[in-house]
């Protein structure tokens, strides 16, 4: 449990961090909260020659509202999200999800940017940012670009980030009127990672039918994903038990899901159905106010 020898540099600005990444290439790894990278290094599953510590970049620790969106710096911790009054008022599903991550020690140090960039298939935030239709800002040698959350998670620990890029900010819409969202998960009792986690977003039309529905799922497959077919079936309908049963039937194919010591693919498919039904009911009730 001892890492390979490595060098350490602390960056105080985004430009400084990018310069170090450009200079050292694949030999460098970015250190944010460290709750994903350090265990991998101790097991020597990751053996960087240089750690670029971005924890001192203060501009990435802010949460602010701008142009109808909430902007979270990559270094905002889970605990900060959990207790943010701005987020509780404008997008309460984010604090709801943050409160379910790990334990207090993890929430005090772990960051939203580190979690999303690591793209653990059982992490909580990916389902939520998918359901919220969030945007992820990446900053690299060619400047800044925006990646829709639906395009960000590409496979096991694989994202749309390019070599030399930093995930710098996450932007989520302020919850519009007559909308609601919820996040529920079946946690692994040891790690608190999601065996399956489901986030649901619902926006209602004046007649209480669904104008918009988004369902994000984590833990079930090699990468978080949207249940797009189920979403389409629910648009234009009122959420009740009969509608949910029909719309969520066969929402996932067990052949596409993970099977391991925590759960079989078939059980994960069952959890997807159960948690989606509960999360959608909760989101619907919140949208109705």
UniProtKB/TrEMBL annotation:
Say if the entry is tagged with keyword Oxidoreductase. Answer: yes
Stretch forming the signal peptide: none
Keyword check for Repeat = no
Q: Which domain of life is it from?
A: Bacteria
Write down the Gene3D superfamilies for this protein, in alphabetical order. Answer: 3.30.465.10, CO dehydrogenase flavoprotein, C-terminal domain, Uridine Diphospho-n-acetylenolpyruvylglucosamine Reductase, domain 2
The Swiss-Prot or TrEMBL record annotates one GO molecular function as:
oxidoreductase activity
Cross-referenced SUPFAM superfamilies: CO dehydrogenase flavoprotein C-terminal domain-like (SSF55447), FAD-binding/transporter-associated domain-like (SSF56176)
**Domain spans labelled FAD-binding PCMH-type:** 1-177
Q: Which UniProt keywords apply?
A: FAD, Flavoprotein, Oxidoreductase
- Name of this chain's protein: Molybdopterin dehydrogenase FAD-binding protein
